[in-house]
Amino acid sequence: MDEKKAKILVVDDDPEFLQEVKTALESHSYNALTAKTMSEAQDMVRREKPDLVILGTLEHRGDAYHLHQWVKQSLSLKDLPLVIVDATPEQQLIKGWRWDEGMQLEAEDYFQKPVEPGKIMPHVMKILDKVTRRIKVLVVDDHVVVREGIRVLLGLQPDIQVVGEAIDGSEAIKKVHELMPDIVLMDIAMPGMDGLQATKEITKEEGEQARILMLTQYADEENVRASAKAGAFGFIPKKSASSQLLAAIRAASKGEHISIPTESDK
Hints:
By secondary structure, the chain is of the alpha/beta class. The protein has two domains: 7-130, Rossmann fold (3-Layer(aba) Sandwich), CATH 3.40.50.2300; 135-265, Response regulator (Rossmann fold, 3-Layer(aba) Sandwich). It has helices at 15-27, 38-48, 63-72, 92-95, 99-102, 117-130, 144-155, 169-179, 195-203, 221-230, 242-253; strands at residues 7-11, 31-35, 52-55, 82-86, 109-112, 135-140, 160-166, 183-187, 211-216, 234-237.
């Protein structure tokens, strides 16, 4: 992992266990997040985009399994590492994983309560050491050749993953909700709902974390101002060099802006 603190989400309905694991994680300089229910955990995953989830027991038997399935069946989340902490033998029939659920388990590690949080930490550290979190990108353009060219370029990058494509603004809004990308490459001019209107709709939603980089054939001041007003994070002329596009994506994922010249700068 890089120097930025890794985010780890701990999901469990036992406040004492949550606090013990949170304390252990913070003692290792991790950013520890907590959730007590499946819905809280799903909201936290969408909003905070953790690097790893420690999935403990939940009040209703089967909720932990359903949360596991929600992660593993999602295109944008399937690579999110999970560490499972199952119920104690005494609570196995109330909160534990069923036999058939266990047969579908996909996780980096498995523990059963009672377990000392300190014993989980070396496993967490090892998982995070080998996991490089990729930047998830949604490509929005009505031209298939443009989408394919961007997909090929980004597919060669070990730290970037194209999670989906859209052909207009309406589909882009739907895909942002479904795929939870970190970055959206949004064409300005598209039939139907254009990129500016789609950007306004996406950025006005409370809690939306996707950063939008506008793409256009025309690198003029009017388009730059319109993009900023719509809520875009940055602006990239389509004829920019591949290295500039990659730099912009990586910078935006860290919350940094990158300046790419417009026509008036030349």
